[in-house]
């Protein structure tokens, strides 16, 4: 649930940016290494920007107590987390 959308965002962004940057590399306005670095960097931002809420939910489930669990499954964790911390709380730690 976390990796598929993240990889789609990463490789989609990377592919689009490599195609966008290619003319600048051909005209020698940008080196190929710089183009790869820029595309990879922005692709990484797209990946984490999309999956960070999923990662927060995963971490909350992993940290839940075994003896007295707070969450009764994935959907319950999502609903309760949203109620407790809101949408911005799911992105806590991005900065």
**Distance between termini?**
23 Å
Shape: elongated
Mean pLDDT: 93
Name the poorly predicted regions. none
Biggest beta-sheet profile: none
Return Rg in Å: 18 Å
Order of helices and strands: HHH
SS-based structural class? mainly alpha
Question: How would you portray this structure in words?
Answer:
Helices cover 76% and strands 0% of the residues. The chain has 95 residues and is mainly α. Helix 1 packs antiparallel against helix 2 (32-63) and helix 2 packs across helix 3. The model has no long low-confidence stretch (mean pLDDT 93).
Short description:
The protein is mainly alpha-helical and 95 residues long. It has helices at residues 3-26, 32-63, 74-89.
Please specify the SSE layout and strand pairing.
Layout: H1 3-26, H2 32-63, H3 74-89
Which tags fit this structure?
about 100 residues; mainly alpha; elongated
């Amino acid at each position: 649930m976390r990796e598929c959308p993240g990889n789609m965002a990463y490789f989609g962004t990377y592919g689009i940016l490599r195609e966008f940057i290619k003319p600048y590399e051909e005209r020698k306005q940008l080196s190929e290494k710089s183009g790869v670095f820029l595309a990879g960097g922005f692709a990484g931002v797209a990946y984490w920007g999309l999956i960070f809420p999923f990662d927060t939910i995963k971490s909350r489930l992993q940290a839940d107590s075994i003896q007295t669990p707070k969450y009764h499954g994935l959907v319950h964790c999502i609903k309760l987390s949203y109620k407790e911390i809101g949408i911005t709380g799911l992105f806590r730690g991005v900065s």
